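#lab-general

N.A. 3:47 PM
ok so I finally got the sequence cleaned up, no stray characters, all 75 residues accounted for. can someone with queue access submit it? mine expired

B.Y. 3:52 PM
send it over

N.A. 3:53 PM
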Amino acid sequence: MLNRLNSRICVECGLPYGHTDFAYHAGKIENGPSYWSDRGLLCSVTCSTAHHEKREKEGDPMKEPAPNPLERGFR
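B.Y. 4:20 PM
back already:
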């Protein structure tokens, strides 16, 4: 499960899941988010890149892929 109380917002910018600017797999909300980490959802490639760079600077990089939130009861 995602490690954030509100797992339905972008952990970088706070954009809510469901917003038209959120990136969805194959462009469809029913397919789920395109980006996520073990800390939560990411709304875009821009936020995904910023999240990765911030974690590298903090000394806490992801060591393995985060579980797919759709396989963990996201909806």
